[in-house]
Design goal:
This protein is 38% helix and 22% strand. By secondary structure, it is an alpha/beta fold.
């Protein structure tokens, strides 16, 4: 598949289905701060789709809109809106009862659902995600919100009782942490962002939300819903270049929680900017270089299919993607042949095409980086073993299967975050084990085999190195009720429906000696519902 063939994948304007077309650019000239949609007349950032359109002048990259580029002064105004709304924990939002906060989140969710088609369309055009995956991301996010509400009700019901121990009466509940700086990733700009933003909000924190560089406009349709559903200053949006606006926010010391899904290097720098590091809570989803281990007892069809999905779903642009595959030498030839054949059948095309699996890459420099990885691997003895591997044109990149990969290659060490699949042959199981032990990352591993004794040994070898071991299955995040975290440089804090609620809150106790006077005081507060915190109200 030469460049000319790849070029044909891009559409002309007339061939784009009307229901998925962006007929005019979205020029965002407002942002949400302190409960109002603030008008913006300053600098803006153009948003370019990874899609190129055929015109009389040749291929032209599709411009889909623009958004504000605020500066550090504007960002500080946003920060103080969040600080004011939190008001040392005495603001309207952190003082609300759990049931009242749930009502606000439910109101937002209903308004969000009304914007489904707009958000899905922008997911497609901004980051090149297929229609099916964009719809799935939106629907999964809505379900995550409802699951979060259900989990909070469970926590609150458990907390509605009093404990009496050693002559002390106490009630243990969860209280918010303060002002949260929330930054999500481009690959799941809605879902991954909301898996931190929603629990942070519903636990009573105020939030400064910075959309990702690729995937900014898709949040614009939701700003009015945020404004209408929450008190002023509870959620505020940040726009602009991160290196221009974020340092001053961190250096102010007024950020209580940093939540970032992105690079470990960026997270390290941001944490060091905070003047009170011990007070800062960090909830981070970071780099990963998840390995698959295909043992000699593996069922080849299972291993091939799961590794295909694991390494190339959404072009391999997932933190949970399988990014290096270790295959026992006895199976390597058959595994490579089967995987190469599967890769060649993947459908390349535009996001709206039925069954499309490989779509344009949103990062402008990513194709050049992937080519660099491939050329470096070739210099050190690897070969691209699938027919069209590595062929590319503009933002389209055909997946490349590299074999044999070794430690001299960049792709051994670096997280490619794209459609390059490195395969490493091994004879001694210590080879993949040593790789996992020495890796600076520790998110997940996938183990393929049928030998119970060997699988058992590999589980025990890896459970203290990574945070999820998948047996005969690809690496993945779901279901959302499972803990999602990582070791080493891969994560800090735990995300899942229930764990995220705990991550964005702290256990707080109200206690008193169990004498008659104190019992009467507690009973009166509870019976008269004089406190939102000290309460036996039961949320159904």
């Amino acid at each position: 598949m030469q460049a000319s063939e790849l070029e044909k994948l891009f559409p002309d304007a007339a061939s784009i289905p009307k229901e998925f077309d962006l007929t005019s650019p979205i020029e965002q000239r407002e942002y949400l701060v302190n409960g109002e949609m603030r008008q913006w007349s300053g600098k803006t950032q153009d948003v370019w789709s990874p899609i190129y359109i055929k015109t009389n002048k040749g291929l032209e990259q599709k411009r889909i809109g623009s958004y504000p580029i605020t500066d550090a002064t504007d960002a500080m105004e946003v920060l103080y809106a969040g600080v004011k709304a939190y008001s040392n924990g005495r603001g309207e939002w952190p003082s609300m009862s759990v049931s009242q906060r749930i009502e606000c989140v439910e109101k937002f969710t209903q308004k969000m659902i009304q914007k489904r088609d707009e958000v899905v369309k922008l997911l497609m055009w901004e980051i090149g995600k297929s229609l099916a995956d964009s719809q799935k991301e939106f629907d999964r996010t809505v379900q995550y919100i409802y699951d979060t509400i259900g989990a909070l009700k469970d926590i609150d019901r458990t907390s509605s009782t009093f404990l009496i121990e050693e002559g002390i009466i106490g009630q243990v509940r969860r209280s918010p942490l303060g002002v949260v700086l929330c930054m999500g990733p481009f690959n799941y700009p809605l879902n991954e962002t909301f898996t931190t933003l929603i629990p942070a909000l519903i636990m009573g924190n105020t939030v400064l939300f910075k959309p990702p560089k690729h995937g900014t406009l898709l949040h614009y349709p939701l700003l009015e819903a945020f404004k209408d559903s929450f008190p002023a200053g509870v959620i505020n949006t940040l726009y602009g270049r991160g290196n221009s606006i974020i340092p001053q926010l961190m250096e102010s010391g007024k950020i209580d929680v940093l939540t970032l899904i992105g690079s470990s290097k960026v997270a390290d720098k941001l944490k060091k900017m905070h003047p009170k590091v011990n007070r800062l809570r960090a909830i981070l989803g970071l780099d990963a270089k998840n390995a698959a281990i295909v043992t000699e007892s593996a069922q080849l069809d299972v291993a091939i299919n799961e590794c295909l999905l694991g390494s190339l779903s959404f072009n391999g642009q997932r933190c949970t993607a399988i990014k290096i595959i270790f295959v026992h030498k006895s199976l390597a030839e058959a595994f490579n042949k089967g995987l190469a054949e599967k890769i060649e059948t993947l459908k390349l095309g535009m996001m709206w095409e039925p069954g499309v699996q490989i779509t344009p890459l949103p990062e402008p420099n990513k194709p050049a980086y992937l080519k660099e990885l491939i050329e470096d691997a070739k210099l050190h003895g690897a070969t691209v073993i699938n027919k069209h591997g590595g062929e590319n044109f503009k933002s389209i990149f055909f997946p490349a299967l590299l074999y044999p990969v070794n430690s001299k290659m960049k792709v051994w060490h670096e997280e490619q975050f794209g459609p390059v699949v490195p395969v490493v042959p091994f004879e001694d199981i210590s080879t993949p084990i040593d790789y996992i032990h020495e890796s600076p990352h520790g998110q997940q591993v996938a183990i393929f085999g049928t030998d119970v004794n060997q699988i058992s040994a590999l589980i025990d070898e890896t459970v203290n190195q990574v945070s999820r071991v998948n047996v005969n299955a690809q690496c993945q995040r779901g279901p959302d009720s499972f803990p999602f975290t990582g070791r080493k440089d891969s994560a800090e804090g735990t995300l899942s429906v229930t764990a995220a609620l705990r991550s964005f809150s702290i256990r707080t106790v109200v206690a008193t000696k169990a004498n008659q006077l104190n019992k009467d005081i507690v009973n009166q507060i509870v019976e008269n519902q004089q406190s939102n915190f000290l309460s036996t109200r039961f949320i159904l």
